[in-house]
Task: structure prediction
Amino acid sequence: METNSKTTSWLIIFFVLVILLFLANLWYGSVLIPWQEIFQILTGSGDINAVYNVIVLDYRFPQAITAMAVGMALGVAGLILQTVFRNPLAGPSVLGVSSGASLGVALVVFAGSMYQFNMLNSTSVFHEISVVFAALLGSLLVLSIIISASRRISNVVTILIIGIMIGYTVSAIVGVIQFFSRAEELHSYILWGLGSFSKTSVNQSIFLLGASMIVSAIVFFYVKGLNALLLGDHYAKSLGIHVRKTQMIMIIIAGLLIALGTVFTGPIAFIGLAIPHLARNFFKTSNHRILMPAVVLMGVALTLGCNLIAKMPGYDTSLPINAVTSLVGAPVIIWVIVKRGKVKRA
Amino acid sequence: MKALLEIKKLETGFELSRKKSLSLHKALDFELIEGQFVSLLGPNGAGKSTFLRTLLGFQNALSGEVLYDGISSHDMEVKELAKKVAVVLTDKIDESFLTVNEIVSTGRYPYTGFSGRLTDEDRILINDALNLVGMLPFSERSFQQLSDGEKQKVLIARALAQQTPLIFLDEPVAFIDAPGKVEIMELLKHLSHTHQKGILAATHDLEAAIRFSDQLWLLGKDGKVAKGNPWELLSKGIMSSFFDKGDVILNTEKLRFEKIQITNNLTDETTI
Result:
């Protein structure tokens, strides 16, 4: 399983693309900011226009960084889930894991509202940490239900349906919680639930990207185990891999990444499922040593690209990010199902 | 001759609950030595797969022990066991982008670091293994697009790349056409006799097992067990006692099962 020079050049091309898309996200919007201004603002040199400075640093910069963090976190989580469950249709949103994270957030928001705090609009670090923690617990709760279901059921589509049903159940619970919430929390929770890259502060966005990078880096140490799991549990064990341990660590990491990719942005649909398929089919490989950097770079590029599209040329407001990601992601699911059907018949 | 595998008083079966268990075979005593090709035979549902899974530690033995190179498998890390025995299983591999070379290179995993990076020596061993099974020209091909026979040879190469003294195979010739079957059985015989591998193959193919293997281990229903030279087991009628099912019996000359035709002339006469 070797990386060849063609793969390496494509990874470099994607890296350059990510930088260009990042700069484009700073440049583009209802106000176009001249390139030299962007460079001056980023390097902090020269004569900086105060309005441009605010637009770039306070609005577009955290938004672009958040988009990058979400693309990386959900892409890597999707790759892990697809390998560990040996299910090409696994992903944060389809398995209901994002909904689990949402439930965690809803519970904390509701609990906060009883003490007259608005957890989603709070500036307190303690409140931010408790929201992150609740999202993590919620995603791990759903993942543990999926694990026990997939021990009993091997059909990948059945597991998918169970995941979708968990998603509905969780939404119903959230609905009940909302019923008892104050109007103010309800309003901010519903806004959060629509999904957006633009509500994070500079600090939050940097935390998200840093944490996503650190957690994703851990996955590089499990490349061998993930590759062995592609052959199935028995082969992996016969190759000296601690199968259960590897699966558990990977699932906890996926839970962490999904929590990170949901907590400040709201659930972002289909990104986590689509990116690993795009990476596999572009690089024509299942080898995680190539897929990991590919998923990170393509994931980041895709979310930055979606964010650009959402800024709709000629309009002052932007589209909901979930509308854009669904338009990209849902066709990928259909394509995967159709392709699987073809393989089965052949 | 060195005993690669010793099975002592092994009891296979399933733990149903903490106190209850379903025992399939009791007090199994087998030994597999260097350069020996053993076929494991038995009717459906007798417990061949359970036996193999127990040897590999995929499921627990009810009692007894399994020794690899004299070391009990209880005292062995999964990584150590991976250096003693390689497997060819019936589990389907359906990843669409894995190449032949990538499948075989997983055989080197017990020897590589956490990233699975291969050394030049690893690459030589992988090519040697592919060459030995005649699949080297297919190295860069997609595994998924191979025929069943070719896939099986690649999986055998994968086991060879693992450089273990023992190779266990589950149904190596099921779903393979007649010439392919002979090719694979000849290959296994060659690996054991020329390369000193100890080979244990669970199979339903009586004829192939008798023709190619040095010893048979028979696992029957109701805990029945036998072992020995294939032709001896056949001539002594032991084979028949394991497999005959009602009026379908083993023809020991043609090595195939036939339904006995009962021609009853008496009834014809009485009706007249």
Chain A touches chain B through 27 residues (CB under 8 Å). The radius of gyration of chain A is 20 Å.
